[in-house]
Amino acid sequence: MSTNRSTWLAVAALVGATLFWAGNYVIGQRAVEAIDPLSLVLLRWALAFAPLLVIAQLVERPRWREVARAWPWLLALSAFGIVGYNLPLYAALEHTDAFSASLVNAFNPALITLAAAVFLRERLTPLSVGGVLIALAGVLVVLSDGDLGSLFHGGFGTGELLMLVAITAWTAYAIVGRLGPRLPPVTSTAVQSGVAVVVLAPFSLASGGPELPETGAALGSLVFIVVFPSVLSYLLWNHALTVVPPGRAGVFLNLITVFTAVFTILAGEPWTAAQVVGGAVVIGGVVLTNWKAFRGTGADPGPAAGRYSGSPGIAEGSKARSSHE
Question: Where is the EamA domain (predicted)?
């Protein structure tokens, strides 16, 4: 296969992955109307576990003893990335719209860059600092709906606050992933999903068992979330990273917010100028934060450039380099 064709196929894979991750916000908002967040997370990863495990065995043929020895890291990664990210995300979608949630999530790469500087001693350039501050300003515009003064007397909305919890958990996931052993990406995600199911199942049973979809629409939403954001997006992203450097791939994650905005408009749902302006500022700040990586220069683009960029499933291999998220 020619290099140009391989590159274009990789780009198509990146676009497809981000398209499906954007769908997780839009479809997730519909799903939580019929299925509570705990049940949704449990069912999502319980149903995705077997396909991921089979794919891992067929494609990666992992050394399971080495995987088993990494259990403390996999437990921590599952706690932060599967449970800690997904639960507040779906809970947030009970209180805010998909577009607003994706806008807050767009700040995650900048937050990871900042955390990497604090905890991993990674160097922050003046441009990176400026990008983080600009992205933060964009998030504040979104949170305040354009009225920054309202943050001082009204605080954050419940949905937006839950999204801040979600991206904080994903940031912790990114940092832990950088410190842990390298594992095959699909294998790592499969094990993390299995751990999450084991951890969440007792809580679900204690509350009466998981809430199952009772309508065709609810079932369809669950199937979409399992098949596309949980399995296909992840595989597309990992395929693309065999051709495209992580730093350049990372810029495509900004399409999640763009696609979510398009879905919002097509669905006829309301949107505000503050969301559009704030979202543009956030994305601009993230691009500045990772400018060197996006231009394809530098040896290691860092966690925010594509390895751990704040989308469900982009665990670039938990130093398992599981590309996505």
Answer: 10-143, 158-290
What are the residue boundaries of the structural domains of the chain, listed by start? Answer: 3-305
Position 303 scores a pLDDT of 31
The pTM of the full predicted model, rounded to 2 decimals, is 0.85
For 52-103, write each residue's pLDDT tens digit: 999 999 999 999 999 999 999 999 999 999 999 999 999 999 999 998 898 8
| Residue linked to tokens 């860092």 | 302
